[in-house]
Amino acid sequence: MSSLDGLSLGQLFSTGQAILTDLEDTSLSSIDPEYQAKVSDIIQRLTRADALVSQLNIFSENEIIDDINTNDLKFLLITAYLGDSILKISGKDIDRSKILEKSRDYLIRFTDTCQVHDLVKKEDVLLIQQLSHNKGKGPSVPASQQRDQKIARFKRERAVKEQIKQLRTQLDGVAGKKDDEDRDVEEVERDWVEALIELELLRALENWHAIEQEFVMVKEMEIMREMMEKTGRTTAVDNREPVLNRPTWGKDKPMLSKEGRPLQPFVIMNKREQLKGQVFGYGHNLPTMSIDEYLEQEMAQGNIIKGGGEQPEKPPIDDNDYEALDAETMKKRDWDEFVDANPRGAGNRGNKG
């Protein structure tokens, strides 16, 4: 932190913003030590900048957007950047629940500040109220409504990004001009900062929504870990609690570490998912052995009678047994009459008469 002591509020903000922008386009993995070092640097710079904003009383709750100086307006982004940066923290010994709580606190501060200074649109106010009301419980709005809101925010975000790009191009084009064009430069810069704030507001709402969803999963994991520590086995608290489906191997090994990290692969299923699997699963018992294995098992149990073979030949009729000869002759005659009355294929005419 000593290297930051000589930096002004503007320098702390601009350098933190620049590093955060670089991270958005970096090829580094989020778990890379270099990536995490940059995240830590951003948080240190912006945390100090946030403290200076409070000490200097730059913003007043009685001010609307038009009352705020253009040079100070950009400092509204500090809490949004902090909320985004904290979500990027990852590591082996990190408590994810605390990360989510801290990030959400900054995002709530940012959205509250935007509301105070009249920077929030009506459709955003509705979502903020929904997220605030259901804090820690996950969103309660229908899935279709969530999808429509997400699509609308995505379209707005794309339009705002295009606006920011155009304003940045205008600023770069008039950067070297002075005197009579100073007023125009300030107006363009103000529009650019306001567009940045709107973009970060959309991102903050998206991150806040994702945090509430992740909180539900994290709490379920904590409940599972507590139950396993108490009972020494996997169980479900009630129908709302998750059930662990895993193979039989590794039952003598713990599912989670003390920090709550999974040690073995598993699938989380609630009661609804179990019922869904029963409805859309197989409607019959799948075979557990081949036909050959089944026959071998039946033979071993004595359920198959061995023997058989070709039918024995019919003994010839004695030439002196006239009754037998007459009976054989009548049998052949009856068969010939039957064949004449019922030619081949007569019984398979497909109901054609």
Automatic annotation (TrEMBL):
The lineage of its organism: Eukaryota, Fungi, Fungi incertae sedis, Mucoromycota, Mucoromycotina. Residues 334-353 are annotated as: Disordered. It comes from Thamnidium elegans. GO terms for cellular component: cytosol. This is TAP42-like protein. One of its GO terms (biological process) is regulation of dephosphorylation. It comes from the Eukaryota. GO terms for molecular function: protein phosphatase 2A binding.
